[in-house]
């Protein structure tokens, strides 16, 4: 196999190459999150309790997504470095094992999570309406977890070989399908029309999501099986586990997984602290989480693109290009987030009213958006320079940064604010900004220490 198959990202302008991968990825994820915002907007028309229930479920659901984080992060470095070396057979083998192994893990995780879901809900709320909304939304999402994980794998595989357009097409298709199905499934009558809907409520929102994910997975897998793309697999090898690669799929991304677990455990503790301020505050935080997720998509696109180029650069033994790519991603990300923060700071009330008409929720949400959104500027630096860790397979800095920023700083501050000082919720929002600043410092220190520079998988 000739090594020049990876030269498309190893030559020419770094900015141009970065944007050529990042832009389709950004668009794909932005459409995906745009659906989440539309989803929240429709659910907000049901009730604040419905929003709160889905917020609680989504917070817990991220525990399961940690497994996707571990295997997905590992697969980025395995696939991109194999492709950068020009080893097509190993590239295919890594993709095949990621598909098979991640699907198996998803089945096991889904079974366990479906058993513990109801007891976990009791930790957050005693409101039967909120609990019922979470259960109606949650069980079907859990059932389709293997399809969701496999869909992520297909998209990651394409990005790792430098093809970001197909994942964009897949994700945009999913978002559009979701947006069309949501009002049909949720309401008795489609809002703004006299057309009858199915009236399934929050269950309908979940059903629209899993149908869209399933349809787009079929589209993505059809691309793979066509054998006309850079992503090629052998169906026979999907039925076999490869211990050497599967071990790496667990171990390379394990620090990321532990970091994601700890970060989401922080989310669970945060949600518990927020419940002391009432259902309306939980609903406001749920809307804020969706908005932050939407605004975060450009950073995710830049990070994935940068990680791909870094991984290929390291496979190609081009360290200077890897560094320059990460630096460029950090600059682009921070500048974009400054613009986002300016818009949010000027129009927070209008933004909140898009999703819910409850005046109490809107009133709580205005200062929340103004305080939390500047975190994204710092996150731009974190995601840019952090891409060297994903690309190289040296992922410990994510864990170090999370433990220090979230557990040594944010959780103690929230405990002090909520349980001891008992001051307003605005002080809770401020802990997010402080923690993000600490996380940025830790990531930059680890980047400059340079241990990632010699790491290969």
From TrEMBL:
Signal peptide (UniProt feature, chain positions): none
Keyword check for Membrane: yes
GO molecular function, one term: antiporter activity
Cross-referenced PANTHER family: FMN_FAD EXPORTER YEEO-RELATED (PTHR43298:SF2), MULTIDRUG RESISTANCE PROTEIN NORM-RELATED (PTHR43298)
NCBIfam families, alphabetized: matE
Name of the molecule in the record: Probable multidrug resistance protein NorM
Coiled-coil portions: none
Localization per record: Cell membrane
Function: Multidrug efflux pump.
InterPro entries: MATE_fam, MATE_MdtK, MdtK-like
Lineage top rank: taxon: Bacteria
GO biological process terms held by the UniProt record: monoatomic ion transport
Transmembrane segments: 18-38, 50-79, 99-117, 137-155, 167-186, 198-225, 261-279, 291-316, 328-347, 367-386, 398-421, 427-447
Membrane topology value: Multi-pass membrane protein
GO cellular component: plasma membrane
ATP-binding found in the keyword field: no
UniProt similarity note: Belongs to the multi antimicrobial extrusion (MATE) (TC 2.A.66.1) family.
Keywords: Antiport, Cell membrane, Ion transport, Membrane, Transmembrane, Transmembrane helix, Transport
């Amino acid at each position: 196999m000739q090594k020049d198959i990876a030269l498309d990202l190893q030559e020419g302008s770094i900015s141009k190459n970065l944007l050529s991968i990042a832009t389709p990825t950004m668009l794909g994820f932005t459409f995906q999150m745009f659906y989440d915002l539309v989803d929240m907007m429709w659910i907000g028309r049901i009730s604040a309790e419905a929003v709160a229930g889905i917020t609680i479920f989504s917070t817990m659901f991220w525990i399961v997504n940690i497994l996707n984080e571990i295997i997905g992060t590992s697969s980025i470095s395995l696939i991109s470095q194999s492709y950068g070396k020009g080893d097509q057979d190993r590239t295919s083998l890594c993709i095949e094992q990621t598909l098979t192994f991640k699907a198996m893990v998803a089945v096991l995780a889904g079974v366990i999570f479906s058993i513990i879901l109801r007891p976990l809900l009791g930790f957050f709320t005693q409101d039967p309406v909120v609990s019922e909304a979470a259960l109606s939304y949650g069980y079907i999402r859990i059932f389709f977890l293997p399809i969701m994980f496999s869909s992520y794998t297909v998209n990651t595989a394409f990005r790792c070989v430098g093809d970001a357009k197909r994942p964009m097409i897949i994700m945009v298709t999913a978002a559009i399908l979701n947006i069309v199905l949501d009002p049909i499934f949720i309401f008795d009558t489609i809002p703004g029309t006299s057309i009858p809907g199915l009236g399934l409520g929050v269950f309908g929102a979940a059903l629209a999501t899993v149908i869209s994910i399933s349809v787009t997975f079929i589209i993505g897998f059809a691309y793979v099986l066509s054998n006309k793309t850079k992503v090629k697999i052998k169906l026979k090898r999907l039925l076999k586990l490869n211990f050497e690669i599967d071990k790496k799929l667990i171990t390379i991304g394990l620090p990321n997984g532990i970091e994601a677990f700890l970060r989401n455990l922080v989310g669970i503790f945060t949600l518990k602290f927020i419940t002391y301020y009432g259902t309306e505050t939980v609903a406001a935080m749920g809307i804020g989480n969706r908005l932050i997720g939407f605004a975060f998509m450009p950073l995710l696109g830049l990070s994935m693109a940068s990680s791909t180029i870094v991984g290929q650069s390291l496979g190609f033994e081009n360290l200077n290009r890897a560094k320059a790519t990460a630096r460029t991603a950090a600059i682009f990300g921070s500048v974009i987030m400054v613009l986002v923060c300016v818009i949010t700071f000027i129009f927070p009330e209008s933004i909140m009213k898009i999703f819910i008409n409850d005046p109490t929720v809107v009133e709580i949400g205005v200062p929340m958006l103004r305080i939390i959104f500047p975190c994204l500027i710092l996150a731009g630096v974190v995601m840019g320079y952090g891409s060297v860790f994903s690309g190289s397979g040296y992922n410990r800095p994510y864990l170090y940064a999370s433990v220090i920023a979230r557990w040594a700083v944010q959780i103690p501050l929230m405990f002090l604010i909520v349980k001891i000082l008992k001051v307003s919720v605005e002080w809770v929002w401020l802990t997010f900004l402080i923690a993000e600043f600490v996380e940025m410092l830790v990531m930059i220190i680890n980047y400059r220490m340079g241990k990632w520079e010699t790491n290969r998988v």
